[in-house]
Structures are given as C-alpha cells and as structure tokens.
Amino acid sequence: MAARYQISGSTSAAISASVESGIRAGDLAPGDPLPAVRALAGELGVSPATVAKAYQVLRQRGLVATAGRHGTRVRPRPPVAARRAALLPPPRPGVRDLSGGQPDPRLLPPLGPHLAALAADIGPPTGYASVAVLPELAAVARDRLAADGVPATELTVTGGALDGIERLLAAHLRPGDAVAVEDPGWANLLDLVAALGLRAVGVPVDDEGPSEPGVRAALAAGVRALIVTSRAQNPTGAAVSADRAAALRTLLAGRADLLLIEDDHAAELARVPLHPLAGVTPAWAFVRSVSKPYGPDLRLAVLAGDEATVARVAGRARVGAGWVSTVLQRLVLSLWRDPATGDLVRRAAGSYDRRRDGLVAALAARGVAASGRTGINVWVPVPDETVAVTVLRDAGWSVAPGGLYRIAATPAVRITVSPLDEPDLPALADALTRPVEGGAPY
Questions:
Q1: Alpha-carbon separation of residue 131 from 122, 126, 326 (angstroms)
Q2: What DSSP element (H or E) covers 165?
Q3: What is the pLDDT of residues 61-92, one digit of tens each?
Q4: DSSP annotation of 5
Q5: Is residue 405 within 8 Å of residue 184, measured between CB atoms?
Q6: What is the distance between the alpha carbons of residues 377 and 100, in angstroms, rounded to a whole number?
Q7: Is the whole-model pTM more than 0.85?
C-alpha cells in the first residue's frame, strides 16, 4: 500500500468508502496491498470483523482481490474511474503500442456510404412503442448462426458482447455465486464478474479451448455458470476444437443447474470452423458481437438461447436501456448484406492470420513458445512480466502484462498483432527473446 495513504473509518461502510476514495484519487494504485485485517483493525481501533466486512464489500464490488497468503490487493483494473489517471505520462515517443487488443483500423469497413444510404431511406421516426429487434435483422442473424450450427429460434440483440453477458449473469445468478471463467481470460469479463459480486473459478485453457479436467473441477466446485470463448480467445487465441467440443458436450449434457454462455466475439474474423456447445444444457446462450469484424464503435451483439434465457435478457433490457438503436441495427444489416464488406472482412481475417502465425513462427524459430491459433493476439509465457514489459518497452515495443488476464495461470505477456506489419515480425521476435530467456531489464 502507498505509504502516503491512510485508510480511515470506524464502521465497515466508512472503511470501504475510504479505500474506494483512495483508489479514485490514485493514492491506492492497481496492485497495491491493503493491510492485513487484524493490523488495520488495530490501527483503527475497531474489531477484525468490521475490517473483514469492509474487505468483503470491496471484493464484491470488484475493487480488491484476495489471494490467500498474498493478502488483499487493489485489483489490476478496479471498476472506478481514477481522477489521476489522465496525469499518467504518455507512452515513450517512438514506442509501438501492441497492448490495446483493437482491430486494425485500416481493415475496418467504411461506414460513410452505408450511413448515407440509411439517411436517404430510413423512413419516419420510430416511437417508443414500436422499438424491438428488427425482423429483417433477426432473419439474417438466424441464417448466419444456423450456417454455423447454432440454433437461433429465440434471439435478441444487446449492446455488445459484454453487455449481453452482464445481462445473462444478472438474470440467472446472485452475488456470491461461482462462475467458471477461462484462465487466462478476457480482462473485461474478469472485472465484470468481480463487479457483480460473483466468484470467479478459473478453468485452464489450451489451444483447443477450456480443458475438460478444468471444467470438471469447476463443476465439482459448484459453479452456476460457465463462460466459453468459441474462437479467437482473448488473450491466448484458443479455439474450441471438434474433439474438445464433443468432450465438453458429454460432460455438460443435461446440467439443469448450469448456465452455459458461449462468446463468439471474433465471428467472421476467426477462420476456423465453429464447434458450438449451444443447447447441451437447458439454460444456454450464444453471443456474437459485430465489433471486431466491423468496428468497435458498433455496439451490437446477437444473443441466441433457450426461450426462458432470451426472455429474461430481453425483459431486463426493457426496464433498463430499453433496446438497441434501430438505426444501429439497420447499419449492421446493411454491412451484412454488402458483398464488398464481406470481401473486406475476409481479407482482414487473412491478414490477421498471416501476422499472428508469422509472429508465432518467428518466435518458435528462436526457441520461444507462444500461443495464437486464431484472432488478433499472441500469448507469450515469460519468467517475469515486469522484466518482460520493461525490456520490450526499452526496445521500442509496448505490450500488455499477463497479470491483467490471469487468475492462477503462469506469467506471460499479450501482444496484439493488428498494429504490426509482416516486416516488423523479426525485430519483435528478437526483442522478445531476451525477457523470455530471463534476462534482466536494461
């Protein structure tokens, strides 16, 4: 914990508010340790139970995480805005930023022509009473999902993949419930699970998806939901194989106590066959976002599932955001129907494959193991993340530390290939060799 910040309060609510204030102000940084329960109780003159209750509230809000004998620490990405975040120094000039996880803007379809066509043919304004999922969008979405083996009789749309997953978890689970998540896994999802007051149970991931023993152990631990990334897993690039899907379907068949969520966020950008688990459990949902292939600003995802699950998500939306803009739905439908856009997405998928596969191959030639079967990221195990990030920064590359994505997985760094061109790969692979071999920072 930063020495300059002193936690205060005489009640659990006041203590938790003090810690949150410190995080917002930047006095408590991500990763900073909090005092042990008994030590802080002695400092504040309160009972250990009062401090323990404050820490429990902070954990349920996703602000801190407890890791056994390593104590309680501020989470790497606590769900509060820090006022001092804008004061952080900018990246070193000339450093290539490979940490963002964003698609290549050079390969995103232009929206202007589609927006212009919509402006000319959008029709009269839509009122509150008539908004819903556009029937024509639903029809095309069902056809696209059915082509990949996903039953989509019941379907709705949400404001992106994470919005859909949040609505699913909130509709089915309660604070304190356990959720099986991939480890390493999507940082935003780990943050969401914590912010909802749910308990994350990590499931190891290999190139073929969540491991069968890991899922079996999570089920034995009493998880109420399992979240699986179908393809282009973030951060490892894993994709569920036919054999893994068959094994998981056998394991999960008929589990009435489990909500199964599949996230196919990369959609058309993942050029491997989809092997869905959809329908193997009574409660299930399959979420497919449009953001990666068509643009991050297009906050729309299609959500298919069983009747009760889809009805819960749609019903919860009605008393919250209400609906996904029909203007946005029409724009996505226009992109789906445009052959030129389809060609561009296919070219983008091929370009990502060449860059990702090229980096993995260049590292392998240097004796460095890395994962990256699909998608836009490569996962490189390292002995020490701090050393690796520092060495790479000094060599002109900014990468994401694996701690943002890990629960119990071993240290690594995540590299997003979308800012790279193929001629960049040898130099980056050379720069990665030293930290992987355990070299000290410069």
A1: 14, 7, 7
A2: helix 161-172
A3: 888 888 767 789 998 877 776 665 444 445 67
A4: -
A5: yes
A6: 10
A7: yes
